[in-house]
Amino acid sequence: MVESTEEHVVVHIGLDDIDSPFNGCTTHFTYMFIKKYLLMNENIEFIDYPNLVRLNPSIPFKTRGNGAVALRIKVRKPYKDVLIKALTNSLTDYINAYDVKSKYSPGVAIVEGNIPVELSRIYMKALTDYVHIDYLRNLLNKVNNIELPLGISRGVIGALAAIGWPQDTDCTYELLAYRLIGNIGRERCIDWNSLREVDVKYKDYVFNNYDHVEDVPLVAPHGSDPVLLGIRGNDPEILVKYFNELNLCEAVDGWMIYRTNQGTDAHLVLRSIDDVRPYRTLCVETSVKSRPKVLRGAHVVIEIHSSPKTYAAFYADTSLTNVARDLNVDDEVIICGSVKQWSNNTNVLNVEKLYIKRKIIKEIHNPKCPKCGKRMKSLGRDKGFKCVRCGFKSKEITKDINISIISLNSLHVVKTSKMKHLSKPLSRYGRERKCSYLIPTSKWIEVYV
Ligand SMILES: [Zn+2]
User: Fold this and answer.
1) Helix or strand (DSSP H, E) at 348
2) Does 111 score more than 90 pLDDT?
């Protein structure tokens, strides 16, 4: 990581919760701020791509997509205060212009110099658990190189978590193209056929941009989001080619590439079965306690061995229900997802990934005739069996039960269109990598207007 020098100071800027229900979003503000103040600015130098850091998707009052942003830059020392002033002024303007509602609490955090270890902890907690505002207050008492120009808010948690995202972990990239202000709210004009074709062309380098099974594009958000589209992939240079080969029938303001924890399963940490709590994201190693129960709407629920009582829910639209319906009692599994609490206070794990380690296969047949070997016929419940070949009858004889255990080690994931930003798609298994981050801005941002 780049260190501060006599003339320069390394500054990390964290931003979160700059959303409103209908307009604006944290990444759009980031793009607008970089475009206006940081490009071609000789006082600053980027030492990383802008980071788009996804946090716990199961927190109910999250912003859309629950993504926070971190900017990592080297600033000429006398310019630092000017920069922070520009940041807070732009933010105020943005909030007014885009009607960022008071329900959201924009968070800005600035860290100068080395990133305190406490920030990697708040990242892990904000990624996989619920962070209470007192946790934040406690952290702020311990660390002295954090500035909060807008004060304490829930958004500061995400802002600090984004800064604390560890640099040496698996990561991916996303190119976000922003709409012209006048187009925001209008129907998006993208040639979906070109998207499908380009996606096939670069399929080894990109993920979750197009669901080719269901023939559904996944790149465009809905409604009045200022993002026209987002292309996710493992290689930033491919993303630029991909974007340039698309047929867009509307002009864009520009695009920017983020380095991100999307598609990495960072949120699925292995926890003990005793650590299942509402709002946590996790994987647990357990076994099936009850036979699958099919609920109204074709959702499937099983109870797993745990204390307190925990159910695993497989939703009908995730494509996991077929596998779930075939689970047997005592099957050994690893189940991953996020924990919700249902109205009767039971914990329910909404399953994103199911790994079946060992499966118990129970085969039940009518008994074979002890005299002639032919399979016998049941005479009805508790009435015994009769051989149709030799006529032998018995009430004592019982059914043959054959139990076989097979090691499956099979992995099942929700279908592409239902995947969360953080979920690792099957195509990324074996392609995990640490990203490089010292690159010139010309490689990751393009401004057209
Ligand atoms: Zn017989």
Assistant:
1) strand 347-365
2) yes
CA 371 to centroid of ligand 1, rounded, Å: 5
**96 CB neighbour count, 10 Å cutoff:** 9
Q: Within 13 Å and on the Cβ side, how many CA atoms surround 26? A: 32
β-pairing verdict for 51-54 and 67-76: antiparallel
Ligand 1 centroid vs 376 CA: distance in angstroms? 7
Residue 285: inside a domain: yes
Pair 155, 275 in one domain: no
User: Tens of pLDDT along 316-346?
Assistant: 988 899 999 999 999 999 999 999 988 888 9
Q: Indicate whether 438 belongs to any domain.
A: no
pLDDT number for residue 343 = 81
Centroid of ligand 1 to alpha carbon of 363 (angstroms): 22
For residue 357, the surrounding DSSP H or E stretch is strand 347-365
Cα(362) to ligand 1 centroid in Å equals 25
pLDDT tens track for 140-196: 999 999 999 999 988 999 999 999 999 889 999 999 999 998 998 899 999 999 999
Whether residue 103 is predicted with pLDDT greater than 60 in this model: the reply is: no
Share the mean pLDDT of the chain: 91
Q: How far is the CA of 399 from the centre of ligand 1 (A)?
A: 15
Last residue of a domain, one of 145, 167, 189: 167
Q: State what percent of residues in the chain have pLDDT above 70.
A: 95
**How many angstroms separate the alpha carbon of residue 364 from the centre of ligand 1?**
19
Asked whether residue 255 is domain-assigned, the answer is no
Q: How far is the CA of 402 from the centre of ligand 1 (A)?
A: 21
Distance CA 69, CA 60 (A): 20
The model's pTM: 0.89
Tell me which residue has tokens 């005299």. 371
Q: Ligand 1 centre and the CA of 375: distance in Å?
A: 8
Q: Up-side HSE of residue 14: CA atoms within 13 Å toward CB?
A: 31
